[in-house]
Amino acid sequence: MNILFYLSVILLAGMLLGKLVGYIKLPEVTGYLIAGVLIGPSVLGIIPADAAANLDVVSEVALGFIAYTIGSQFDLNHIKKVGKGVLLITILEACCATLSVTLVMLFLFKQTLPFSLVLGAIAAATAPAATLMVVRQYKAKGPVVDTLLPVVAMDDAACIMIFGIATTIATTLLSESQTSLVWSLLKPILEIFGAMLLGFILGVVVCFIMKKMSSQEKQLGLSCGFILLAIGLCDKFGLSSLLCCMCIGASIVNVLPNSNRVFTTVDNFTPPIFVVFFTLAGVELNLSILTKVGFIGIGYVVFRVVGKFFGASLGAKLSHAPKTVQQYLGFTLIPQAGVAIGLALIGESILPSPLGTEIRTIVLAATVIYELIGPVATKLALIKAKEI
């Protein structure tokens, strides 16, 4: 059948299930994933595997927009306002989740180093939407909420940087070419800085042009054009498009006056792209692999939470945060969704089969679990902290 037909089915099914799960108080992204599983090869087979493969470009574009938006969290003025304590908590909770999962995969489940590094890096991601929904629904207020909001805002940016480092190391380890030890160590560093440098250069160019534009439509067109350009250039030169697009967003938020208007315009444009992206991720979920990765998946679900809790608690103690923040902040960082799914798809393309497919399956299954238990854990933590 026509690829446009499949695209329309994916979009409409995702929107329908996203709406339906809202009635039982679940995040829309859970509905998108369920819709994808239902219409995909594993259940109804409406969307065949080869059609899903032909839509990979949608995933690349969606990830570019996600990274671009995350870059807006690198507002230096905002980072100065929230203080060093929040920055320390963010770094430690992300790094401890990564370290916890990586070590468990290596030594408990005897997985390879590239597999462990990539899955560990994905563990750093936290989805803010489900947590913020609970905060707004119950009008929660207090030290935990005041710390939580900036932490989840900056968490995905920290995750993308960790993932960029992990994937470049994993790619180097998997390379079959005979290279010197010095080049093996330098290559990941050069790729990371190359992606960031390209992003900052493109970002400065965007800002220069946008200063001469007043039309939001033209600013949207320019943003889309440069995001696509960044993705294309990174693909050509073997750089991380996530880091590059994130740096474009970071450049705009720090250089361009009234940058909020630019990001708002882009945010209003991207929802259909994200619906297709997440539903497509569900389409590509191979349910038959779940039994093979069962114990590894359970290990990921459990030890990611352990790492998040320990890192958040340690960061809060070192920054002399209130006792309630030290005790309960970690429980509010459980949800995982958009960025983690996107990184899992990138991880699948980096690692050889079946390791890449296993990572995607683990993360997609874990996402559904986290999105179910995350809001409940957040609510209970805020009740214990007496902020609800």
Automatic annotation (TrEMBL):
GO terms for molecular function: antiporter activity. It is a multi-pass membrane protein. The chain crosses the membrane at residues 6-24, 31-51, 86-109, 115-135, 147-169, 189-210, 273-306, 327-347, 359-382. Residues 12-376 form the Cation/H+ exchanger transmembrane domain. Signal peptide: none annotated. It is found in: Membrane. Gene3D superfamilies: 1.20.1530.20. Keywords: Membrane, Transmembrane, Transmembrane helix. GO terms for biological process: proton transmembrane transport. One of its GO terms (cellular component) is membrane. Pfam families: Na_H_Exchanger. The keyword Chaperone does not apply. InterPro entries: Cation/H_exchanger_TM, Na+/solute_symporter_sf. The keyword Lyase does not apply. This is Transporter, CPA2 family (TC 2.A.37).
